[in-house]
Design brief:
By secondary structure, the chain is of the alpha+beta class. Helix content is 29%, strand content 17%.
């Protein structure tokens, strides 16, 4: 079964951070946005594989919808 998880990326003063809200404890940080995107995918896949190997339940993605808004 294929699952799609939401990744949130934040820009800090000197680096980027990313996390997957549906996978508690799964996060990454890097100097560039491109690097943090790569690292969070690797972290998510590793985290899920560890859960599977430990016989733990794999969390379901919970995102119901995604909204953005702009401020003028």
């Amino acid at each position: 079964m294929q699952r799609t998880y939401t990744v949130l990326i934040e820009k800090g003063p000197t680096s980027y951070g990313a996390y997957i809200p549906d996978i508690p404890g799964c996060f990454a940080a890097a100097d560039t946005e491109e690097e943090v995107k790569q690292l969070i995918v690797e972290a998510g896949m590793t985290h899920l594989q560890m859960l599977i190997e430990a016989g733990e339940p794999v969390p379901e993605p919970l995102l119901a919808s995604r909204e953005e808004f702009q401020v003028a």
